[in-house]
Amino acid sequence: MPSTYEPIATNTLGSATASITFSSIPNTYTDLILVVNAKAQSADIYPQYKLNTSSTLSRVYFSGDGASASSGKSADNYIVGTQQVYASGFLFNAICHFMNYSNTTAFKAVLVRNNNASRGTEALVSVWRSTAAINAIEYYASGNFDVGSTFTLYGIKAA
Amino acid sequence: MPNTFTKIASVSLSAQAASMTFTAIPQTYTDLVIKWSARLAAGGAVENCQLKFNGITTGYTNKDLEYVGPDYGVRSLSNVGGTGDVYSGHIPTSGATANTFSNNEIYIPNYTSANYKSISVDSVAESNSAAILDFALAFAAGLLSNTAAITSIALASDTGYNLAAYSTATLYGIKNS
Predict the structure, then answer these.
(1) What is the pLDDT of residues A49-69, one digit of tens each?
(2) Considering its fold, how many domains does chain A have in total?
(3) Structure pTM?
(4) Burial class of B9 by CB neighbour count within 10 A (0 to 12, 13 to 18, 19+)
């Protein structure tokens, strides 16, 4: 059986930073999965992302805060979702699945699960309106991710 | 480069049992994934199941997003099943259509860290029935406010009903290097 779930790069923060970039992503996989487990340094922050430095993303989401459910859609919104990374602890995790990221004839779909047990949970899908292969992912926020936050990019092969 | 999505252990019930448990979980991975499929041996409607880490019985919280239907519709709840364990998925009961089992996935990042443990849960329980509370689709965020590394995991129903025969659970480890 081929090796199909391989770590491409991982970043465990030794110092607080507002941006993590995975660059020179090889095009030898079928899909990518980004796993995040994070804490904000001070103020709560919304994760955002860019693909190949572009933020031409639209999204539709389905979210719950423990009291009510909501859904919505928006265009040109590079905020990953409605869940925040809290400064109160490592409550936030995200699993982002980039489908057929190296395809050069189709726009790219991204499936995301965001979780913060003190704020809520959600599932969303984004579309990056570009036919370019994804070779870089920047995951960032308006404030810093704290020391100890982890970001790992995996590659999955269909065969 | 190694394949880093590795099976650690698998449980398949040959007879009904109160729980499915993984013990002595190696501390050599980065994240854990549990894929499990189950049904309850009793009960009348879809039920939620819970999990405990390391036998710990306090300090759990969760928020879910679920469609349990048709009566409840789409809703979001806090601390489903209480704070003595954490929500781990919906599953059909003996009152559901015969031979229907749930499909659930639990993702646990950084399970050996000295931080609190956050989890992600995706769950479906579909019985091809329009009966009350006979199907569910749910997502959940969970947290154990405890810094101990996770060494054991127990899955059980919230109501105390046994898990039915042929329920299965597989624990996988993922390495980031």
Answers:
(1) 999 988 788 999 999 999 999
(2) 1
(3) 0.95
(4) middle
Q: Give the span between the Cα atoms of A106 and A97, in whole angstroms.
A: 16
Domain of residue A107, residue span: 5-156
Two tokens at B120? 């992600």
Identity of the residue in A4, A67, A120 whose CB atom sits nearest the CB atom of B3? A4
Q: Residue A126 maps to which CATH number? A: 2.60.120
What six digits make up the tokens of A104? Answer: 């050069």
Torsion of the alpha carbons at B28, B33, B37 and B41, rounded to the nearest 10: 60
A10 min Cα distance to partner chain B (Å): 6
- Distance separating alpha carbons of residues A128 and A114, to the nearest angstrom: 18
Ordered structural domains, chain B, with CATH: 5-174 (2.60.120)
In degrees rounded to 5, what are phi and psi of residue B164?
A: -75, 160
Contact B155, B47 (CB under 8 A): no
How distant is the Cα of A93 from the closest Cα of chain B, in angstroms?
A: 7
Taking 3-state DSSP, the helix, strand and coil percentages for chain B, each rounded to the nearest 5, stand at: 0, 50, 50
Whether residues A115 and B119 touch (CB distance < 8 A) is answered with yes
Q: Encode pLDDT of A130-149 as tens digits.
A: 999 999 999 999 999 999 99
Q: Could you tell me what percentage of chain A is helix, strand and coil, using 3-state DSSP and rounding each to the nearest 5?
A: 0, 55, 45
Whether B177 and A10 lie within 8 Å, measured CB to CB? yes
